[in-house]
Amino acid sequence: MSATKRKVLITGAAGRIGTELTRRLGDRYDLRLHFNRTVPDQPLVDDYVVANIADYDAIAPAMEGVDSIIHLAGQPSWRAEWADVHEANVQGQFNVYESARKAGVRRILFASTNHVMGMYDRDTAWPIYADQPVRPDSLYGVTKAFGETLGRHYHDRYGMSVINFRIGWFLEKPEDEIARYMWLSPRDFAQLCWRAIESDVGYGTFYAISGNSSRNWDITDSIVRLGYRPEDDADEHMPPKYGHASFNDGQAGS
Amino acid sequence: MSATKRKVLITGAAGRIGTELTRRLGDRYDLRLHFNRTVPDQPLVDDYVVANIADYDAIAPAMEGVDSIIHLAGQPSWRAEWADVHEANVQGQFNVYESARKAGVRRILFASTNHVMGMYDRDTAWPIYADQPVRPDSLYGVTKAFGETLGRHYHDRYGMSVINFRIGWFLEKPEDEIARYMWLSPRDFAQLCWRAIESDVGYGTFYAISGNSSRNWDITDSIVRLGYRPEDDADEHMPPKYGHASFNDGQAGS
């Protein structure tokens, strides 16, 4: 890393994920925060902007001088109606990419989602690899797939680096059977983000989950290409599912 | 085929492709034509509607009583600006799928495009198979990829049958080297459409080109799953590229 810290813009920084990343990456980078509507009572960083990402002229100034963007802003609910995902995740996505390109931003990390592939999950068609054809389970997932494709285009056409993270379930601790395979801990996502920002990957789509022993989604690419070394595993926080993995324990000498 | 002809809606029927399909499929189906703005002087079919597909309430009534849709309407230029492709190919696409679903339409054939994969072509990364990850060469291509993904979702979620055609270069006759590999003749596309309408395929994405000897895109799926038997080959209309394929001709007995 150079002596000067990289300028990193976090969009949607008031959300659950944005708040955690701000706390965990604030020492490593020179952060700028973007809030879509309201500013938290005590913003964790002085450099912030308030802008609706669906308004190009409002969001464009946030890109000036930025090295990388962690793009979290958008409609986050997989149950959202078309009008909401359309505004935030289609028009808003275009505005962020286009204004970032014009400002010369080097790299965008995009908060995509497992819902892009959710129909494989409903069919329990596991394992899932990131490069399989997309099968969204919702209009939300359709618009996040759009965001990934837009990034592919901006990479191919303009050389901008784009890394799509298909985020699992971002939670402090895993709480149920679904979290067992899809949990993403705050520290593991923070690690994925800094590794991605500092990697030599031009473009890629990666599942972003912790090192869950019971995972159904491939993270080999995240390990090999990004150097990801997850520190958490949902199974360590939950009752055993299949019993002890070393099933011969206790039988030695019998 | 039942004694009663299927009701087939052609959207964007005033365009080049729409006009040809109307002529060629008018005997086989009970057609309804959709025109986005202007009605041709002499519409080829009495049953027609005029509606902007970006206006949900305007387009929805066109779906009533329809068995299948050949969905051609949209912004057709790969050089189009975001505002144009966004309105016609994102909002318009959603309106067509959502209103078709509500009206109980059985199947949609979607006029997608080779531009969804255009960056492979620019890299001459051939052959291209339809199920590779998308790499659009333009915002137009990005929005057509969105249309394919939306169809995947409507198939998975609601059981609607969706067939995406990645149309090559629809021309009366091939005219240059690019057409040699990407030509789609009017009669071959008409055949693809009726085979798709009458097939048992629930969902699929297919390259729509003629049986060009110099093709770079896979049409095996079109042949096997849809029963496509192309009648045209661009090489038959153009000067030889590599000389005669049977290069031993004339050497026999030498």
Level-2 CATH architecture of chain A: 3-Layer(aba) Sandwich
> What is the number of beta strands of chain A?
9
Q: How many discrete structural domains of chain A?
A: 1
List the quaternary state of the chains.
homodimer
**pLDDT < 50 stretches of chain A:** 250-254
Shape of chain A: globular
| Helix/strand structural class of chain A | alpha/beta
Helical stretch tally of chain A: 8
Strand content of chain A: 15-25%
Q: Which chain pair has the greatest contact?
A: A-B, 26 and 26 residues
CATH topology of chain A: Rossmann fold
Specify Rg of chain A, calculated over alpha carbons: 19 Å
User: What is the C-level CATH assignment of chain A?
Assistant: Alpha Beta
Q: Going across the major beta sheet of chain A, what is the strand order?
A: 3-2-1-4-5-6-9
Protein model, in words:
2 copies of one chain form a homodimer. Chain A has helices spanning 16-25, 56-59, 82-103, 118-122, 139-158, 177-182, 186-197, 220-226; strands at 7-11, 30-35, 48-50, 68-71, 107-113, 161-167, 169-170, 183-184, 203-208. The first copy, chain A, is α/β, with parallel strands linked by helices. Chain A has one domain: Rossmann fold. In chain A, the strands form 2 sheets. In chain A, strands 3-2-1-4-5-6-9 form a 7-stranded parallel sheet, sandwiched between helices. A two-stranded parallel sheet of chain A has the order 7-8. Chain A is globular. Chains A and B meet through helix 3 and helix 5 of A and helix 3 and helix 5 of B.
